[in-house]
Amino acid sequence: MALYPFLCLVFCLTVSAEFVWKHHNNEELPLVLEEVHQKCPNISRIYALTEPSVCNVPLYVIEFSDTPGFHQPYKPEVKYVGNIHGNEVLGRELLLGLAHYLCDQYLKNDRRIRALIHSTRIHLLPSMNPDGWQLSTDTGGRDYLIGRYNNHSVDLNRNFPDLDAITFEFERQGINHNNHLLKDVTRLAAPLEPETRAVMRWIMSVPFVLSAAMHGGDLVANYPYDESKTGAPDSDYSASPDDDTFRDLATAYASAHADMASATRRGCRTTGADDSGSYNFGKQGGVTNGAAWYSLKGGMQDFNYLATNAFEITLELGCEKYPHAKDLSKEWERNREALLAYLWKAHIGVKGIVSDDSGFIQNAIISVVNITGPVPRPIRHDVTTGAYGDYYRLLTPGHYEVTASHPGYFPVSRVVTVPENQTSAHVLNFRLEPTTSWFDDEIGFGVYPHASRDAQPRIYKRSLYERVASTMLEDKDHKH
Ligand SMILES: *[C@@H]1O[C@H](CO)[C@@H](O)[C@H](O)[C@H]1NC(C)=O
Ligand SMILES: *[C@@H]1O[C@H](CO)[C@@H](O)[C@H](O)[C@H]1NC(C)=O
Ligand SMILES: *[C@@H]1O[C@H](CO)[C@@H](O)[C@H](O)[C@H]1NC(C)=O
Ligand SMILES: *[C@@H]1O[C@H](CO)[C@@H](O)[C@H](O)[C@H]1NC(C)=O
Ligand SMILES: [Zn+2]
What we know:
Its cofactor is Zn(2+). It comes from Loxostege sticticalis. The chain is an alpha/beta fold. It folds into two domains: 7-347, Aminopeptidase; 350-465, Carboxypeptidase-like, regulatory domain (Immunoglobulin-like), CATH 2.60.40.1120. It has 15 helices and 19 strands. The model is unreliable at 440-469 and 475-480 (pLDDT under 50). The chain binds 2-acetamido-2-deoxy-beta-D-glucopyranose (4 copies) and zinc ion. One 2-acetamido-2-deoxy-beta-D-glucopyranose is lined by residues 55, 135, 151, 153.
């Protein structure tokens, strides 16, 4: 992730502090971010992803945190990604507006925004597809498809490795290997585009726990899985192990939006008074399972969930893909509370640190059984600990048995109650005991040589994220 240190030398004299609602072009976009950073240098940082777009436009991110540039244990990381389809542009402008808003409210001592920024690391990528945006804009921004794709005519939201196929196969075979599945990919359906590769490297290298990707063309919060389990093209609900949690996350956005969840609003494709036969998501709370709407392979949402610890949903922000500039500030008002409510969702469930006598344990596995109802139900999607031994397990209110495990240690389980309306995840730390030291302490097992204990890799220095990013990503795409 290259830093962008020299922008200021060129542009600092020309920046103005007032945010204007309009369609910002690819030259103006980094200037807007730079304005925000100038106003809020202590809580923001601008960086570009590792690779630019096909037409060489950098993919800029602005980060908000009280420790910009650094992950801190107990502090969840969240991202918003806008404009993945180049002609779906509202998310791009909302994220620029959100960047200004977070900074301005922080400076005005807005207590809620200060608490959010002090407890959360927030990354905003306003445009994942600047080339598509350019084409769409140059052709008037009215077409349903022109500008959707990147400059290689590839749909970026179909270009991610299809991990759904892998997890469905494991499910069918009863194999309980349910996370970080990128290393199980044996071939890619298509070469990775530069924008896809840049975003993959990003999501594999930052320990995100929550995310949303922004689209347009309908008004609904869509949650995993996007791919059906039977191959049906539509109307085939495809539940993930975290179905309850995903529904809760999507509902958090929809119900805080002005009318996404309104049962009385009209559906986007309604022609007359009668909207039977077309989807009206307002009548179902403003949320939908992806495959229950229509099935797609290679989407970014499911990739996040199946390749990393991040839970991602997809936001369709309105019927109009390219709204008129004069409507943008109204759209901001309609989305503002939802954008903030969703960021707070990074704080639901439990979080903590897994360690042993000598330090943090990276890549420990956190598994959860839902013991709220009469029958315990395992949630077959584990999360793993990161560089500081820290984990974040998003959960809805209820009672859970949480287990931390790692090869070479005895697993430890604890029971926890997740309350409603959390603004901070319940802290649950684990101290694991190496199996070898247990043998050392037992009379009769004293013959176990200390050498074998010392040979135990106690702390894995390289994270799963880095390992996968540096090996799988590199050679897989070169084979095609
Ligand atoms: C940034 O932090 C420094 C040192 O703590 C402080 O003096 C300065 O006022 C802060 N600037 C802003 C814009 O908050
Ligand atoms: C790629 O970009 C060039 C230069 O902007 C443009 O002329 C061309 O139409 C674009 N092609 C596609 C397929 O988007
Ligand atoms: C656990 O079970 C309860 C009761 O069935 C349910 O309300 C809750 O959403 C479940 N939690 C998760 C994370 O699935
Ligand atoms: C949680 O918030 C909702 C909505 O604000 C409220 O109706 C509910 O009573 C709250 N629950 C608790 C336990 O505070
Ligand atoms: Zn889209």
